[in-house]
Amino acid sequence: MGGTGRDDDGRGRLGNALSGLAVAVGCVLFLGGFVWGALVYQPYTVPTASMAPTVEAGDRVLAERIDGADVRRGDVVVFRDKLWGDMPMIKRVVGVGGDEIACCADNGRLTVNGKAVEEPYLLQDDGPASQKFTASVPEGQLFLLGDERMGSLDSRSHLQDPGHGSVPRSAVSARVDAVAWPLDGGLIERPEGFAALPGGVSQPGPVKLMLGAVVAGAVLIFGGAAYGPVAGRLGRGRRADREVSGVA
């Protein structure tokens, strides 16, 4: 009878409807995650090893598009400045407008406004800087260092320039949130050493939510698409068992 709610191969109409819904929702999440990522993030290939070991030369990173006003100490940013060669570069912000940056304290650490800062992202054998220096960061500017302090050409190389080696906040186009390639690169953590300073550290971007949407969408698509063949095979198996039982 047509009113039983089941089709000939044993699959319920409700099951078919739910599997179709799962595929539809999965497509929205999967494609939406990629569209969301394209709107919020820009891919960037790291050109040098100046940010090792946080990111290495050739790494493909995801950088969240932000306004320079949103930059905080500890952020790894993509920026472009004429005095630095007028090309995209990636460095870590260690000072903002009004800060006094110096190296090094008695314990060998970088200081910001006289407070020593823990920098666990540095290589074990690297010091905070290859030479002593002090710098005053003008308002609206950022002081930037590479994590590979022994070889990085950064604000220390521009201390004689206007702004004591700093760059305008407006020069920043994005903040690095994650290493997309190689796959084991992972997220770029916000350093706790800057958290206690005024302004604190920035919040992570939506990269986890974006990846979660893509993964959840893929699971729903494959799960929903697999329902039909699996249910059909189980239905044929049940019919075969009934036929064998009837013969017996």
- Helix % is 25-40%
Which structural class fits the helix and strand makeup? alpha+beta
The number of helical segments is 2
The main sheet comes to:
8 strands, antiparallel
Task: State the separation between the terminal residues, measured CA to CA.
Answer: 27 Å
- The gyration radius over C-alpha positions equals 27 Å
Unreliable spans are: 1-10
Q: Which descriptor suits the 3D outline? A: elongated
Count all strands and give the number.
12
What's the pLDDT, averaged over the residues?
A: 86
Beta-strand content? 15-25%
Q: What is the chain-wise order of helices and strands?
A: HEEEEEEEEEEEEH
Highlighted features:
about 30% helix, alpha+beta, 2 helices, disordered N terminus, elongated, single chain
Summed up:
With 248 residues, this protein is of the alpha+beta class. The protein has helices at residues 13-40, 207-247; strands at residues 41-45, 60-65, 76-79, 89-96, 100-103, 111-112, 115-116, 133-136, 141-145, 167-168, 172-181, 186-187. The longest helix has 41 residues, at 207-247.
